[in-house]
Each structure stands twice: as structure tokens, then as C-alpha cells.
Design goal:
Blueprint lengths: L5 H25 L3 E4 L17 H14 L4 E3 L4 E9 L2 E9 L3 E3 L2 H7 L9 H10 L6 E3 L5 E6 L12 E5 L7 E2 L2 E2 L2 H12 L1 H7 L17 E2 L7 H4 L6
Antiparallel strand pairs: 1-2, 2-3, 3-4, 4-7, 5-6, 7-8, 8-9, 10-11
Helix pairs in contact: 1-5, 5-6
């Protein structure tokens, strides 16, 4: 059996991270959602936030991450992704997060109604430019239930059929933990989020004119879980992939 040394494993992880970062950026660009890509190797502030009790605290935390630019991928609506991969002994610990910005911009029609703009007597292109540049809270509405989606791969706390080695959290509750039978790559995680949260963008990318077989390779490229972290009892349970 081939044994990979610690240094070689670090090198392999670094190379894979760079390749996955390129795939993530390309996918988000194709979906017309990309605003900024930083893709940090190290960061000061993690999005692994627990015990968020209300929308004000959620918004404050999002604002802090945006101000510090502690995201990897920033979307046009100021929602963002963060990806962390760290070595603990000979194990790789994965943590991916999607946080939806709770401030959502009102539609152009609602904007015109709000400011009593009659498009029959106004330059519509000029008004659209003003609308596109306006990011004030007056033209944004607060979501009552913004999405927080987190994916973890961690051997600490692993208990079959209770606390899976690979699992997905939806919402801020630590108890909502959905088993995943593979190690999701960042592109696969982004794929899943865009499909669920931005269906119109996803519909556009899978249209006949933009269909790209590489999009459907993301699941195939996800690694199999180590046997010691995925047993026959878990196979009989409900899980993703």
C-alpha cells in the first residue's frame, strides 16, 4: 500500500485547492453571480458561527465578514461562500459555508412605485442606472429567514447514524445535520447552493446553449469516505449522494 507522507499530502491538498478554486470561480461566473473572488489560503475570521439568535445578529455578522473581506466568493447580492481545509494530524478537516445576505434589493418596478417615477415621462435607461447603483437600505428589504448552509467533514465527534463524519447543516441549529456519503468538493457545494437558492441562474446555465458536461462532473469527482467513517448501518439510513 502506498503511504503518502505529511509534506506530500500538504502539497497535494494545495494543488487540489487551486484547481477547485478555478472551478468554483468559473461556475459562479457562468451563473452570472460573481461579484468578487478572493479565495484566501488563510483567514482571520471564520464563518463557522454558532448560536445566532435573531436576524439582527445574523445581519451584523454578515456585515462584519463583508467589511473584513473574509469571504472566498462574493455574489452580486452580497451573499458569500467561505471554504476552509485544514490538516489535523493525518486528517483533512473541511468546512464550507454559504451565508445569504438578508438585505435583498426591491425590484425595479417596486423601486419606481416607491419613488413615484412615471416611466412614460422619464429616461428609463437613466432610471435603471440610478436603481442599479442605489444600495441604500431604503431600497432593500430584510429577509426574515436568510439561509445559512454549512458543510463539515470532521472525525471529532463522529458517531454513526447520529453525528456523521461528512454532513450538511441547513440553518444555524447545530442539531440539523444531514449525512453525506462522499466528501463534497467546493464546486459540488457551490453547485448545490446555486441550484437551490438561485434557480433562475441555474436554469440559465443548464439551458441547451450553455450546457457543459463538466458541470455534471462535480459529483463524480467527490471523494469516497474512508470505510472507518461510513459503515453498513449508515448505508441503511437516509443520506445525500
Amino acid at each position: 500500500m502506498l503511504v503518502i507522507g505529511y509534506g506530500a499530502k500538504i502539497c497535494w491538498v494545495t494543488m487540489r485547492v487551486k484547481a477547485e478554486n478555478r472551478m468554483v470561480t468559473l461556475l459562479v461566473e457562468k451563473c452570472d453571480l460573481l461579484k468578487d473572488a478572493i479565495l484566501k489560503q488563510n483567514r482571520n475570521r471564520s464563518c463557522i458561527k454558532r448560536n445566532i439568535e435573531n436576524i439582527a445578529e445574523f445581519k451584523s455578522y454578515v456585515d462584519e465578514i463583508l467589511f473584513r473581506q473574509e469571504y472566498d466568493i462574493l455574489l452580486k447580492d452580497d451573499s458569500f461562500f467561505q471554504f476552509e481545509r485544514n490538516m489535523r494530524g493525518d486528517q483533512i478537516v473541511y468546512k464550507y459555508v454559504f451565508m445569504q445576505n438578508p438585505l435583498i434589493k426591491i425590484s425595479f418596478d417596486d423601486y419606481c412605485k416607491k419613488y413615484q417615477i412615471d416611466l412614460e415621462y422619464e429616461d428609463i435607461d437613466c432610471i435603471k442606472d440610478i436603481y442599479n447603483e442605489d444600495e441604500s437600505e431604503e431600497v432593500c428589504k430584510m429577509l426574515n429567514f436568510p439561509l445559512y448552509i454549512r458543510y463539515d467533514v470532521d472525525d471529532r465527534g463522529y458517531i454513526p447514524n447520529l453525528h456523521s463524519y461528512s454532513h450538511l447543516h441547513i440553518g444555524v441549529s447545530e442539531d440539523i445535520r444531514i449525512p453525506v456519503s462522499k466528501i463534497l468538493s467546493p464546486p459540488a457545494f457551490v453547485n448545490l447552493v446555486i441550484k437551490m437558492v438561485y434557480p433562475s441562474n441555474w436554469k440559465h446555465i443548464i439551458s441547451a446553449s450553455l450546457n457543459d458536461s463538466k458541470i455534471y462532473d462535480f459529483k463524480r469527482l467527490c471523494e469516497k469516505l474512508p470505510d472507518k467513517f461510513w459503515n453498513s448501518c449508515e448505508l441503511r439510513d437516509v443520506f445525500l449522494t
